[in-house]
Each structure stands twice: as structure tokens, then as C-alpha cells.
Design brief:
The complex is a heterodimer.
Chain A: H1 2-20, H2 24-44, H3 48-72, H4 84-101, H5 119-128, H6 135-143, H7 145-167, H8 172-181, H9 208-231, H10 239-256, H11 259-265, H12 268-291, H13 307-334
Chain B: H1 2-30, H2 34-59, H3 66-94, H4 112-123
Classes of the chains: A mainly alpha, B mainly alpha.
Chain lengths: 346, 124
């Protein structure tokens, strides 16, 4: 109870500070802290899978993408005069939402409708029909497989949108961004304010502590991602988390060494293809069940004994591939690295 | 006997870990400038966290692999926390956060005879 209260107070404090800060670099860092606090809250509420995702996406990759965006634009917020109409809209919306939550059942209330309509079927079915230990995975990939297909499509759409806006820009805009790239993700953040610099900007890969420790960590990060991918049936984890963690390992390498180095291992063109491959693998699993004579994404068609397992594995693999490729491709876009920029080593 | 010893060792580690966390947070609040505060925060990250994890590992029960998992977490903390502190300090330095000069020695700015004379006059 007290821990939840403390975390919630901290969340509100951080949110207010983010809104008030003029230094966007600090604000981007605080959004990471915000996500970590939320992840803590979710853990306390026993939503470990959600906490996992929030920590990996919110505290990890989103912060990197924010920094990339700042590298392209500016780290200082433009001062604007106070406007009361947006404030009024925000206060009214927030008030309406708070008023709405007063009608919701209390957290953990056993009489809440959600605990009576479908949840009992899911809880029993996960063991007897799906044979999966992690109920969240059973709901996400099997009972609600159609919704998750929608979510993967959202990820796909987001990647396409970012590529349309940034990734494949040409001409003047691209050159502008490329200039920004010199002081964005591949290079030490210290170069952001030339007037205040004490030392010449030092590339991160020239710093031995970072170089050695990152090289030590990356294999374990990638291995852990594969574990999370394969272990989603039995514990917290699955395609979304695994994809993000795998991409985080690659992005960490790009941050310290060079986005170019990542692009040589995982070319942007391959990433773009893999985003589509992941979504196709998911949708293809559904089509396969249709062709076998069942309903869309009804994995029982793959065999009654372990068909659900095969189906969930295929679908989660599709999610993992799509998410990992999307994250890496977004990182390339936000670090202003374009497919045609990839240079082969001499 | 062994159980009692393990319990005692675990409590000792937990107590020391909490002490280091307390000292570290106190340092973040009370130290005068950014770099010394980072030093205090680093103590919380490494010593405090590792000692508490070690204490919990002794409580965790060796059979279920909890101890092994906590040992792994410990290893990653020892690898990542000091690096994070290092990167933070380096970034601050590159960004122009000044290393404070030592407190100016105002006493030696006064001529010796004058201060000595003042003292004597006060004593009389």
C-alpha cells in the first residue's frame, strides 16, 4: 500500500517536472525514469509481463529515440507565451477522466465484472485447453490472437510512418539531418553545446571503460532476448519483450561504437524486410489454420496435443522478429543513418 | 546451527547494505557539488545493492536457484552500475560542469602579524 502510494507520488512528481522543464535533454532522461517507476507499479500489481515491456521499451529504447530526435532538432524548448485555452482543454479532459474512474471497481475487487465474465474461462482454459503455464501468453497469443495481430500491424505501421517521415528522406532535408547526425546518437552527447565544451568532443568508442564493458554485456543481452522469446510460454516474456531486448543489444552497440557498425551486421534493408516478414509470419499462421480447415488463428488445427504450442511459438516468433527489426530500423532513422550511407569497410 | 549462521550472516549483510544505501542517499543530499554527489550515488548502486542482494541470496534457499539468479543479478550490477556512474560523470564533464576548486584559504590572506596582534589584544 505505502510502496504504491510512494511510487504514484513519484510518478506525478516526475510528470510535473517533465512538463515544466525547458531542457529537453533532461526531460528525455526523466521520461525514462517515469517509465521505470511505472514498471515498478505494474510489478507490484502482478502484471509482470507489462512491467517487463514498459521497462524495456519506455526506459530503454524510447529514451534513445528521444535523444535521436533531439539530436536532429534542438535540446531547448522554445519559450511560448501562456495560453489558457489548451490548459482549459487539458483540465477538462483530465477532470472527466478522473470523474470516470470513480465509477470503476476498486483494484482487486472480487466483485468486479472482469473477474466474472471471461477471466475464469481463461484461467481454467490456459491449463486444460492451451497447456501453457503463463496465462498472459495464452490470452495474448491464443485467446486474443486476433488483437495481437492488430498490435503487430500497429508496430509495422509505425515503422512505415517513421520511414516515410525520416528514413528515406532525400535532398535538403536529409543533408540537414546528416549534419545533425554528427552530434546525435553515434557521438558523445558532450558535443551538443559547442559553446560550453571543455574538451574536444570525444567519440564514445574511444572511451575504454564503455568499450570494454559494452562488449562484455552485449552477448548476454542478445542471449537473454532469445531466452525471453523461447520462455514466454512458461514465464513472463514473449515476442514483444524479446524483440525489444534484442534490438536494445544492437542499439547499445551502435550508441557506443557507430550506427554504421550495426548497419553492417544488420543492414537497414534487411531490417525493413524483416518487419514485413514478422507480420507475414503472424498472418501466415492464421492463413495456415484457415487452409487446414479451421478458423483464423485456431491453432488446434496443428494437432490437438501440442498444436497450441506450435501456433503460439510461430506467432510469438513473428512478433519478436517484427518488433526487433522495427526498433533497429527506427534507431537507424533517428540516428540519421540512411540505407545509402552504409559504407563497406575498406 | 548452519541455518542459524546463515541467518546471522544474511542479516549482517542486509544491515550493512542498508547502511551503505543510507549513507549514499545522505551523501547525495549533503555533498556540495555534482561530482561528490555522483560518488555518493555510486556507493548506493554498488555496495548497497550488492550487499543487500548477497543478504537476500543467503535467505533465498539454494535449492530453487534463487541464489544463483541473485548472484547473476549481482554480477550484472557490478558490471553496469560503475560504468553508468563513469559515463554520467564523463558526460557532465564534457558538458562543462565545473570541478569545484578547493575552498579558498581566507586565513592565510591576512598578514601574520596583524592576526597575531588581534589575538593578543583580545587575550588581554
Amino acid at each position: 500500500m505505502w510502496v504504491e502510494l510512494l511510487l504514484l507520488v513519484l510518478v506525478v512528481l516526475v510528470a510535473v517536472v517533465i512538463a515544466r522543464l525547458g531542457d529537453l535533454f533532461a526531460a528525455a532522461m526523466l521520461t525514462g525514469i517515469f517509465s521505470l517507476l511505472c514498471a515498478g507499479l505494474y510489478t507490484i500489481m502482478d502484471a509482470v509481463d507489462v512491467a517487463f515491456t514498459e521497462a524495456a521499451v519506455g526506459a530503454g529504447i524510447t529514451t534513445v529515440l528521444f535523444l535521436g530526435a533531439l539530436g536532429m532538432t534542438s535540446t531547448a524548448e522554445r519559450q511560448q507565451r501562456f495560453r489558457w485555452r489548451p490548459l482549459l482543454v487539458v483540465v477538462l479532459t483530465g477532470g472527466a477522466l478522473m470523474w470516470g474512474t470513480s465509477d470503476m471497481p476498486a483494484f482487486g475487487d472480487p466483485a468486479a465484472p472482469i473477474h466474472h465474465h471471461v477471466e475464469p474461462e481463461y484461467l481454467e482454459g490456459a491449463a486444460s485447453d492451451i497447456h501453457v503455464a503463463n496465462v498472459v501468453t495464452a490470452v495474448l497469443a491464443s485467446y486474443r490472437g486476433y488483437d495481437t495481430l492488430g498490435e503487430v500491424t500497429v508496430v509495422f505501421t509505425a515503422a512505415v510512418g517513421v520511414m516515410l517521415l525520416l528514413g528515406r528522406a532525400a535532398g535538403g532535408a536529409a543533408r540537414h539531418w546528416r549534419r545533425g547526425a554528427d552530434r546525435s546518437l553515434g557521438v558523445s552527447e558532450g558535443a551538443a553545446e559547442p559553446g560550453e565544451l571543455r574538451d574536444a568532443p570525444m567519440l564514445m568508442r574511444e572511451k575504454p571503460v564503455l568499450r570494454v564493458s559494452v562488449r562484455l554485456l552485449i552477448p548476454f543481452i542478445l542471449l537473454f532476448a532469445l531466452y525471453v522469446q523461447a520462455h514466454g510460454d512458461f514465464g513472463p516474456g514473449g515476442g514483444f519483450q524479446a524483440g525489444v531486448i534484442f534490438a536494445a543489444g544492437l542499439i547499445l552497440f551502435g550508441l557506443i561504437f557507430d550506427p554504421q557498425a550495426v548497419a553492417r551486421v544488420f543492414p537497414p534493408a534487411v531490417a525493413e524486410t524483416l518487419i514485413a516478414v514478422g507480420v507475414l509470419l503472424y498472418g501466415g499462421t492464421g492463413v495456415a489454420t484457415l487452409l487446414l480447415g479451421g478458423k483464423f488463428l485456431d491453432y488446434d488445427e496443428f494437432g490437438l496435443a501440442s498444436g497450441q504450442h506450435y501456433g503460439i511459438l510461430a506467432v510469438e516468433l513473428g512478433v519478436g522478429i517484427a518488433v526487433a527489426a522495427t526498433m533497429v530500423r527506427l534507431y537507424f532513422a533517428f540516428s540519421a543513418l540512411h540505407p545509402e550511407d552504409v559504407v563497406e569497410p575498406q | 546451527m548452519i541455518g542459524w549462521l546463515l541467518d546471522a550472516a544474511s542479516w549482517l549483510l542486509l544491515a550493512f547494505g542498508s547502511l551503505f544505501c543510507l549513507v549514499g542517499s545522505l551523501g547525495v543530499l549533503r555533498f556540495p557539488d555534482f561530482y561528490t554527489r555522483c560518488h555518493a550515488a555510486g556507493i548506493t548502486d554498488t555496495f548497497g545493492a550488492v550487499l543487500i542482494l548477497a543478504g537476500l541470496a543467503l535467505q533465498g534457499g539454494f535449492s530453487q536457484g534463487v541464489t544463483l539468479k541473485l548472484a547473476l543479478v549481482c554480477g550484472f550490477l557490478l558490471l553496469s552500475s560503475p560504468v553508468a556512474s563513469h559515463a554520467l560523470v564523463k558526460a557532465a564533464h564534457a558538458h562543462g560542469v565545473l570541478v569545484p576548486q578547493p575552498v579558498p584559504d581566507r586565513v592565510s590572506e591576512y598578514p601574520k602579524s596583524e592576526t597575531a596582534g588581534d589575538h593578543r589584544s583580545q587575550e588581554r
